Amino acid sequence: MVIVLGFFFMPLQVPIKWPRSRDEVWKANIPHNFLAKEKQDQNWMTEKGEKIIFPGGGTHFHYGAGKYIASLANMLNFSNDNLNNGGRIRTVLDVGCGVASFGAYLLSSDIIAMSVAPNDVHQNQIQFALERGIPAYLGVLGTKRLPYPSRSFELAHCSRCRIDWLQRDGILLLELDRLLRPGGYFAYSSPEAYAQDEEDLRIWREMSALVERMCWKIAAKQNQTVIWVKPMTNDCYMEREPGTQPPLCRSDDDPDAVYGVKMEACITPYSDQTQRTRGSGLAPWPSRLTSPPPRLTDFGHSIDMFEKDTEVWQRRIENYWNLLKPKIKADTLRNIMDMKANFGSFAAALKDKDVWVMNVVPEDGPNTLKLIYDRGLLGSVHNWCEAYSTYPRTYDLLHAWTVFSDMERKGCSGEDLLIEMDRMLRPTGFIIVRDKRPVVEFIKKHLTALHWEAVATADADSDSEQDDGEIVFVIQKKMWLATETLRDSE
Ligand SMILES: *[C@@H]1O[C@H](CO)[C@@H](O)[C@H](O)[C@H]1NC(C)=O
Ligand SMILES: *[C@@H]1O[C@H](CO)[C@@H](O)[C@H](O)[C@H]1NC(C)=O
């Protein structure tokens, strides 16, 4: 950790706060500036003194990201040119996201986008996204599945992402297909969609043929943008000629098993349950957040249990905020991670705060991440015995509910986890540990070495009858460098 600091020419800064961070960030906080240099001519971002500025929405779209989003909605005939379509579009996967301006400008329409980088060259853009306070995951569209369950997103988006969608029998498009809900859209903005030359024409022809065999239909096409729509049911798959490529996935394939699972070039059909409901059965946002998720039945959980869980976490969040209050202002926290998210009720209880939550679900537990997406929230699957796929200093608050107890059970090192949490945490960021007393004692022993400071300790017993001796321990990460070299971001 310490060694990394040696690379900086300028001291780290306390990140600029959301929503100002949508438009500007400190250069010093993003150690590799080559992307800024590369994109300077495209007007995505420019360097200005000690800051990087994202002008005109920070995309290559001539009229800015806001206008571009409205024109997508207009192409789909959504009322008021609002892409959220009355709350029916909420979760979006943005592939090859530039500096995530698409995701940044969707937020005002109550749409939340997970931005992922398409390949090694552009992973650095994920760091820009997180520094700006926009949800992003350092995921690579390569050979492994992205760490999201099937049918998680209502819309996938890619603009000039320079991905070869035709490679390996269309395996990357088939991964998007797995991730889209019934009737989900793929908005693709690229010169090929409005072919100018021979090569573009060839790519367009082959892509059109491929997605047709995948049963996608063109919903709209305009300028350099095409929007395809995925079928609502399996009917079209069944009607294909025998031997049509790509094939359907094997019936024993679990479309929601994602951690370290290799992609395959096959179509993921809908389950019988989805077939029966002819679609997702989702309530429109925002009632979707608190309605019982359609896939709750996959786990055999009752609606009553779900509603109790929602209530319990509402109380816990209130309690957490009281503990944090002396240390935070309204805009202090932006990027939050719930390291063991269960049903996503921690994130749901934060809905009135100007924050977003990365909900992490352990890869060896029940894969409740599909419930989290059903609620209109974002997340990923992870194993905390390993490093999380994000840049250093990208989260303002980490919530670790029984995560350390799990480490112990799995025989992984609690010390390694502490170091990983320190790596992910932004300067002056917070940790809330909710765990057994011996875990809290263990962490306390390491505070000095990590330059962390105890903020508060509370007995958790009072806020729910479910707790068995859990303690709430709030910690703040101090700045590493001498305070006189730091500037306030105000
Ligand atoms: C297409 O171009 C027209 C102007 O020529 C513009 O008004 C519209 O927003 C564009 N649509 C998209 C999807 O970019
Ligand atoms: C939008 O409306 C136009 C004009 O009525 C129609 O031609 C087009 O098919 C509609 N598109 C979609 C995606 O509904």
Automatic annotation (TrEMBL):
For this protein, what is the EC number? Answer: 2.1.1.-
**Class in the EC hierarchy, top level:** transferase
Q: Where in the cell is it found?
A: Golgi apparatus membrane; Membrane
Query: Which Gene Ontology cellular component annotation is one that this UniProt entry carries?
Result: Golgi membrane
* InterPro entries membership: Put_SAM_MeTrfase, SAM-dependent_MTases_sf
One Pfam family name is: Methyltransf_29
- Gene3D superfamilies for the chain: Vaccinia Virus protein VP39
Q: How does it sit in the membrane?
A: Single-pass type II membrane protein
Keyword Methyltransferase carried by entry: yes
Query: Membrane spanning segments where?
Result: none
Annotated family: Belongs to the methyltransferase superfamily.
Q: What is this protein called?
A: Methyltransferase
